[in-house]
Amino acid sequence: MNSIIAVKGITRRFFFNVMGFIAALVIFAVIVSGIFIRDFYYAAVRQSLNSQMSMSAGFIQKNSAVSYSEFLNSARDYIAGFTEKNMICLEFFDSQGNMAVSSKGLIVKDVSFPDYEGARDSKDGRFIYTGEIGDEKIMALTRIMPSNNGESVGAVRYSISLTLIDRQVVQNIFTVSIIGFLFLLLVFICGFYFLRSIIKPIRAITASALKIANGNFEVRLEVKDTDEVGQLCDTINYMAAELASTDKMKNDFISLVSHELRTPLTVIKGWSETINGIFADSKKIDVKLAAKGVSVIESETERLSGLVEDLLDYSKLKAGHLSLKMEKVDILAEIGEAVFVYADIAKKTKNIDISYNEPVMLPVIWADPKRLRQVFFNILDNAVKYSNENSTVIVDATEHDVFVMVTISDMGCGIAAEDLDRVKDRFYKSNMTVTGSGIGLAIVDEIIKQHDGVLEIDSKEGVGTTVSIALPIYVEELDVSV
Q: What is the spatial distance between Cα 48 and Cα 190, in angstroms, rounded to a whole number?
């Protein structure tokens, strides 16, 4: 339901915002075009009237100082030779403003002509008028014919009906409006298909996201394009794959931890019951058996403690609270202690020798000794777990440029090439037959990163694994103050 509302929201925003804006622009363009078309036609009419008035300048000058009767005869002769009678109306007025002669042959009386009154009142004796006179809309240009003493002899008037002109203007504006409407329709259709090309994938993405949110990580989107929507589909598919992988690792981790916890607890419970039975009968106390049971309980308790410590460290790692207490550290001492602890364990459990090529001296590093010890313990523990019986684990430590390099190599089962890039991921285990939480290397990798170091793993299946650790050498800060 939310997806439908969201899609409607996108559609609504598009049509109200984008289409509304475009429609406003089109309407504005039509209005401006209409004004321009009208002004263009009216300017052409105005130019035509001015041209006709210019052509009659000789007549006006010739009759500016003659009697009214001669002026009237000359006006009739001029109208007789006027060739634009069909388009333009030519009229002559007497000095009182009354129409004397008209090219239409119709003399209009008792009608006021605004253009004549405007020309009479203007400084240059000219005036052009656009408007309605009677029932007709016209454009008229009137020029006063002055005499030598400055008085009016009469006036010349050219007028054109604007009915046909306005009709042509309306027709052109209608054509522009149709073009604007077709443009809007085209934009609407393009916008509709554009929105459809986005909304359909969004609906599919929303539906898939809901399925993923409900725990179905097998959902995959069909990627049809390489644009942003296609990239989003790729990202959703990648997210689903990662979630599926993480969910599998989580389930494996829960199963693994449950097994890792259940096994020592079962052993502890069994030996506790055995010891309790031994001491219940004071006459049949088997001290050696009780001692063995206590030893087993101690060993399994240590195992549980280590698992709990790993889980606590993982919790801190996930929350970003894996803190370090940095100081100058003799790395040889830390490596030596780790080798000493695991040499005995490796020998007793799998008859494995730990060969430590101890150098005479190594530079001091800046590190947290407790966390560094944890790193070596974890790596040696893995090396022993995954090594074959009666084999050797080799430990080397050397100085290399500005780093101290520590390598731990075993002769075990190795890691498959497809698993090598993921062994440092949390919960990931390449070999499910070996005990362990699957988070040890993830914790080690994070500790090394916080020391500004590098952890690298090189392995070949069936041959063995080499873990390399590079830690920066500590450099004493110089006092450069004067």
A: 46
State the amino acid at position 34 in one-letter form. G
Query: Beta 392-400 vs 403-409: how paired, if at all?
Result: antiparallel
Q: What share of the chain is helix, strand, coil (3-state, %, to 5)?
A: 55, 20, 25
How many C-beta atoms surround the C-beta of residue 136 within 10 A?
A: 10
Those residues whose C-beta lies under 8 Å from the C-beta of residue 424, and which sit 6 or more positions away, are 441, 442, 445, 455, 457
For 359, phi then psi, to 5°, come to -75, 165
The three-class DSSP label of residue 137 is: strand
Mean pLDDT on 452-466: 89
- What is the DSSP pairing of strand 365-367 with strand 353-357? unpaired
Beta bridge partners of 464: 460
Q: Does position 3 have pLDDT exceeding 50, yes or no? A: no
Q: Which of 19, 294, 429 is nearest to 184 (CA)?
A: 19
pLDDT per position as a tens digit, 227-286: 777 788 888 888 888 888 777 777 766 776 676 677 678 878 888 888 787 777 666 667
Per-residue pLDDT band at 431 (split at 50, 70, 90):
low
Give the integer Cα–Cα distance in Å for 136 and 302.
113
Task: State the pairing for strand pair 365-367/152-161.
Answer: unpaired
Question: Of all helices (H) and strands (E), which one includes residue 409?
Answer: strand 403-409
Q: 150: phi > 0 → left, psi -120 to 50 → alpha, else beta; which?
A: left
The reply to whether the predicted model has a pTM over 0.85 is no
Gap between the Cα atoms of 358 and 455, Å rounded: 20
Give the DSSP H/E element, type plus range, for residue 356.
strand 353-357
